[in-house]
Design brief:
The complex is a heterodimer. Chain A has four helices and three strands, in the order H-E-H-H-E-E-H. By secondary structure, chain A is mainly alpha-helical. Chain A has a three-stranded antiparallel β-sheet with strand order 1-3-2. The relative contact order of chain A is 0.17. In chain B, helix 4 (101-127) runs antiparallel to helix 5. The chains are: A mainly alpha, B mainly alpha.
Chain lengths: 117, 161
């Protein structure tokens, strides 16, 4: 299989990028991903279950995330968890760098305040 | 809240075992998804929607109605998208199995259209050869002729060159 470039996957949709962000620090199941996104964006972005699982299906196919079955006994542990693949992490970093560069352009034309040192 | 204190009843509460109207609608909307998606993600998706509903707690009937409207609309919208994706993948798969007939026909059709477009432009190109737009039109016509010819060129010969 030819080696893919993370930059070739850009730009990501907001839903895809937020899912990658929510999985950057921990493996999560579907509802936990939705909850984390709502929490991190202060409720500004709420992803519905349809969008979430549609995105997850594509992201699994593109090997950005992978599924992890949990053998736990509690109902929470029995669920299917999702985790970032090494390639998914590279893509998330590349997207973050792309957005950072955009913000710098916005600062350059004074749409945003310059960073205080 | 103590254990003896009476908890408020959610707006769409139903006794265990009796399906609520949103879950019935949800099951109906899920049927719009392609079978493989439904088999793989249907259960998780339903569980996720129900958990999001539970997180609302004893919200007002209006808030619950708004939640289900937004959730069901999102799920229905994605069902259309999944059906389209599945259809395109199936057509491509079947076409590949048949030796790419549909793609070849589409390519030839586009090739004919490009050559026809180029032919209809020739008159304009020669009439306006003295201005810059005329030169641009000639370049575009030449590109159309080249691309159209390439699309009409038999695939076996194209592959061998």
């Amino acid at each position: 299989m030819p080696k893919r470039s993370p930059e070739a996957e850009l730009p990501l949709t907001p839903a895809t990028f937020h899912i990658l962000l929510s999985l950057a620090d921990a493996d999560r199941h579907g509802y936990a991903i939705m909850h984390e996104i709502a929490l991190r964006t202060g409720g500004q972005l709420r992803i519905g279950p349809g969008t979430l699982y549609g995105s997850l299906k594509r992201m699994v196919a593109e090997t950005l995330v992978e599924e992890r079955e949990s053998a736990g006994e509690s109902s929470d542990e029995r669920r299917r968890f999702y985790r970032l693949t090494p390639f998914g992490r590279l893509v998330a970093k590349a997207e973050a760098r792309r957005l950072e560069a955009l913000v710098q352009v916005a600062r350059g034309v004074r749409l945003l305040k310059p960073l205080s040192v | 809240m103590s254990c003896n204190e009476k908890r408020p009843v959610p707006a769409d509460y139903a006794p265990v075992g009796k399906p609520t109207w949103p879950s019935q609608v949800l099951a109906l909307v899920l049927r719009a998804y392609p079978a493989d998606f439904r088999t793989r993600y249907g259960g998780e998706l339903t569980e996720c929607a129900n958990e999001a509903r539970q997180a609302l707690g004893s919200a007002s009937r209006f808030a619950v109605a708004m939640f289900w409207a937004a959730t069901l609309a999102d799920i229905a919208q994605q069902a259309v998208r999944e059906q389209l994706t599945s259809f395109v993948q199936r057509v491509a798969r079947e076409d590949t199995a048949r030796g790419g007939t549909a793609r070849a026909l589409l390519g030839r059709g586009l090739g004919v259209l490009m050559l026809a477009g180029a032919a209809s432009n020739v008159g304009y190109d020669f009439a306006s050869v003295h201005n810059s737009m005329g030169i641009l039109a000639m370049v575009l016509t030449a590109c159309s002729v080249l691309t159209g010819s390439w699309m009409l060129w038999p695939r076996q010969r194209r592959a061998s060159t």
